[in-house]
């Protein structure tokens, strides 16, 4: 009888131990894209995104309810607008983040500050930082986020689809003349994209030549005299300012008839989120630029 009681007691303890251990997560230790070591419960179940591209990646991986907070800049997909807002790139509501109790915060080195990430760490929150600088890096960031949120299969599918579509663009434009391109992202003063920007990389992949591609600044200012001198054959206007009067900007370009792009009616307006936001939708930006540069190759 005594042995039976001890055996039953051991079975009970074993059942409790197994049940309890199953409810705990393991700890995943990884290095983020800023070279920082990050350790967090895995798989994490509550996320805060500090940038629009991160939010888009998380949704594209099939997450939704797990995303408990986003930045004020997150506007896509539509469901992101219903998430709790935790602040901007450089100013966070730490009290709100504490209330949300995220298992993992994902930030970007291209906007969020090191001081901000350090402060989150002091509050006990682990932050994984991504820092893509070109199209290829964006694919890597998607893979890395897929890894840390336990959605590696979904990440691979997204990456494969983006690679396939980018390769099609490269193949269709291979060997063609590379038109000179000017991308305008600001109008007062005129600002364009230089070496190291996402748009510069997209122009190259789309079979074009960025007239500001050798500038040292990522976003250099250009005067009209310099634009006239470099004679762009295609002008792409990015809708970075949501309150921008783009019809006025198009009308202003129409005055400069000596610019090949103006003379030949090759001025295009494109959604800035497609060419300057390192998310899965950047492949759409690449395709849009390629169509503007080589319309004969992309006729439906």
Description:
The chain folds into two domains: 26-151, 3-Layer(aba) Sandwich (Rossmann fold); 171-297, Nitrogenase molybdenum iron protein domain (Rossmann fold). It has twelve helices and 13 strands. It has helices at 2-23, 52-60, 94-100, 114-122, 135-148, 152-173, 198-205, 224-230, 246-253, 260-263, 273-276, 282-293, and strands at 26-31, 37-42, 47-49, 67-70, 84-85, 104-108, 127-130, 180-184, 186-187, 190-191, 209-210, 234-238, 267-270. The strands form four sheets. It has a five-stranded parallel sheet with strand order 5-4-3-6-7, with helices on both faces. A four-stranded parallel sheet has the order 11-8-12-13. Helix 6 packs parallel to helix 12 (282-293). The termini are far apart. Mean pLDDT is 91; it is low at 8-24.
> Biggest sheet: strands side by side, in what order?
5-4-3-6-7
Overall structural class, as computed from helix and strand content, comes to: alpha/beta
The N- to C-terminal Cα distance equals 83 Å
Helical content, roughly?
40-55%
Order of helices and strands: HEEEHEEHEHEHHEEEHEHEHHEHH
Concise description?
This protein has 300 residues and is α/β, with parallel strands linked by helices.
Key structural traits:
alpha/beta; 5-stranded parallel sheet; single chain; about 300 residues; 2 domains; 12 helices; about 15% strand; Rossmann fold
Helix and strand arrangement:
Layout: H1 2-23, E1 26-31, E2 37-42, E3 47-49, H2 52-60, E4 67-70, E5 84-85, H3 94-100, E6 104-108, H4 114-122, E7 127-130, H5 135-148, H6 152-173, E8 180-184, E9 186-187, E10 190-191, H7 198-205, E11 209-210, H8 224-230, E12 234-238, H9 246-253, H10 260-263, E13 267-270, H11 273-276, H12 282-293
Parallel strand pairs: 3-4, 3-6, 4-5, 6-7, 8-11, 8-12, 12-13
Antiparallel strand pairs: 1-2, 9-10
């Amino acid at each position: 009888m005594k042995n039976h009681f001890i055996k039953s007691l051991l079975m009970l303890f074993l059942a409790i131990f197994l049940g309890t251990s199953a409810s705990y997560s393991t700890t995943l230790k990884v290095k983020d894209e800023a070279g920082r070591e990050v350790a967090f419960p895995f798989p994490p179940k509550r996320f805060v995104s500090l940038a629009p591209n991160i939010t888009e990646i998380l949704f594209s991986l099939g997450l939704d309810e797990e995303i408990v907070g986003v930045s004020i800049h997150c506007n896509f997909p539509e469901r992101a607008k219903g998430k709790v807002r935790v602040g901007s790139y450089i100013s966070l509501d730490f009290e709100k983040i504490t209330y949300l109790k995220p298992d993992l915060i994902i930030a970007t080195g291209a906007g969020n500050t090191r001081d901000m990430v350090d402060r989150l760490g002091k509050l006990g929150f682990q932050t994984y930082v991504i820092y893509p600088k070109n199209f290829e890096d964006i694919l890597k960031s998607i893979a890395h986020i897929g890894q840390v949120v336990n959605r590696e299969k979904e990440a691979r599918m997204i990456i494969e689809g983006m690679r396939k579509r980018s390769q099609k663009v490269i193949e269709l434009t291979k060997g063609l003349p590379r038109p000179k391109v000017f991308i305008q992202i600001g109008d007062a003063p005129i600002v364009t994209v230089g070496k190291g920007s996402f748009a510069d990389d997209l122009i190259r992949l789309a079979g074009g030549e960025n007239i500001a591609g050798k500038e040292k600044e990522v976003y250099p200012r250009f005067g009209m005299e310099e634009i006239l001198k470099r004679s762009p054959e295609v002008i792409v206007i990015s809708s970075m300012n949501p309150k921008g009067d783009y019809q006025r900007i198009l009308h202003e370009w129409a005055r400069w008839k000596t610019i090949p792009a103006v003379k030949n009616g090759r001025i295009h307006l494109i959604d800035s989120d497609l060419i300057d936001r390192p998310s899965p939708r950047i492949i759409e930006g690449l395709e849009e630029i390629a169509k503007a540069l080589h319309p004969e190759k992309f006729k439906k």
